[in-house]
Amino acid sequence: MFSERAALRDAARQPALHQDRVLRELLEHNAGTEFGKEHGFASIRSFEEFRKAVPVRDYRGLSPWIEKMAAGARNVLTADDPAVYFTSSGTTGAHKKIPVTPSFMRRTFFPFYYAAWAPLIEHFPEVLTDRDAVLNLKHDPLAAPPTTGSGRPHVGASQVDLGGTFGEPLAAEPGSSATWATLPVPVAADDHLHRMYLRLRLALESDVRCVIGINPAMVAALPYQLKLWWPHLIKEIRDGTLGGVPWGRRNHERAAELERLADHFGTVRPAHVWPRMKAVFCWTTGLASLYLPRLREEFGTGVTVLPAPVAASEGPVGVALDRHGSAGSLVVTASVYEFVEADTDISEDVETLRPEDLEAGRDYHVVFSHIGGFFRYAVGDVVHVVDRLGGVPRVEYAGRGGRSDVAGERLLEAPVIRALAHAATATGLEPGNAACRVSAGADGGHRYEFAVSHRTPWSPGEGDRFAEALDGELCRQAPGYRTARATGRLGAASVTRLDGDAFRRDWHNTVATGIRPTQVKDRLFQQDPAQWARLTGGTADVTGNEAT
Q1: Cα separation of the two ends of the chain
Q2: Model confidence over 251-280: pLDDT tens digits?
Q3: Nearest alpha-carbon partner for 224 in 262, 264, 261, 270
Q4: What is the pLDDT of residue 88?
Q5: 156 and 87 in contact (C-beta within 8 Å)?
Q6: For 239-307, where are the E strands, in sequence order?
Q7: What percent of the chain has pLDDT over 70?
Q8: Which of 82, 126, 330, 374 is surrounded by the most beta carbons within 10 Å?
Q9: How many Cα atoms sit within 13 Å of 542 on the Cβ side?
């Protein structure tokens, strides 16, 4: 992994050279495919010709070719057959079928993947000294996965064992050989909460030093679940059972030790049960940037939060090549990258920018092309350019690319999250997670209603000041919102205060419906009335209005 990271650092010195090579390889490899013939891959000699020949598409635009492949047709998007199809739910909730080919794994994925683990292994090598030192919350392979019509597995990326037949031995994730990686008792395929409970029950008898979640909402849920399940966990450790089934030995000593800790501290946190915790590995930006500072305290003083790479199931974007807390360098050896200004709508003929055109401090939609069958693909994510390192932009995930737009405000997640952070700084308050929706007043006007959890007490007056500061920051961060407010098309934003566990509880309850934990992510814009009602519980907001 260190050699792969070194190779990416070297590649950053000549990014244009490597981007040209990636383009050439994907064209040559897929020239004889149905897609390649239709778009003239064999005659394309430059990026400009590639841009003219291939429209920008999202998943829906590529889905006719993908569905044809999944049904069993060969040589459609890629010259080599997919080994597996990843499933991923987009903003609409529709399940995707993301083809993953051997060429993609070898040329695009593994160099990026190995480099992503380098900071953890370099600075915290002790996490690999014991197979039970890492609690990997995302690793959940299926023994009998569902398949597409072609007979290929159709699973989430977290449900694939990269150290097994699909990948290669060195690719096994940290924690993937832990005692709890393969559960010794049967569990229903969709009973994700029970699997999480069983793994936590087993991990409580081990000296866990690192937690891997990728999705930070999963990491945030761990302290909540520890408290929620605490009495039953202690009983099972004492009785030597696992989900009510006899397993291992009766561990009275550990049960008594855990009870003493809970009595001493008056509560229970991961830091108490795993005092030698060193690192947490997850995304550190987006809405997580609001709650990670407090969340890190739950895992222990001095615990390092390492940023997971900027990536989607369809392909990588950026990976940390140093110890930056949120940003990663473009993986110029993996994909051909293009970008679109965040305020611009994505269309087939949208004008795109190359990596050398990007400006620090700006937000951009991501478009990439790689050998695995995604050509000029608008992945739906927005990144924020932090700076440049070694010749390439260093980017961090800023939010999803979908807009909220009821009155011409054209709000993206990124400026709203920044507005929340600035309002917190201006008022000295500490919001946890947040969500918002557009609500209609009795006069027919609209406004943004925010639901905000808080880890420290807020008085009603402080809440009013936060709402006022948030509305002002939205005007500063989003020109469309400022215009809509100035012309009276939007009223002032309001804030509904929620208790500190509201979002964790909502996450837990959503997973209980059968959705995989990795797919239950922080969502800022929430217009589903039922979801909003579950989250807020009809709580009175700080401006004196009632949440509906």
Answers
A1: 51
A2: 999 999 999 999 999 999 999 999 999 999
A3: 270
A4: 77
A5: yes
A6: 241-242, 245-246, 279-282, 304-307
A7: 96
A8: 330
A9: 26
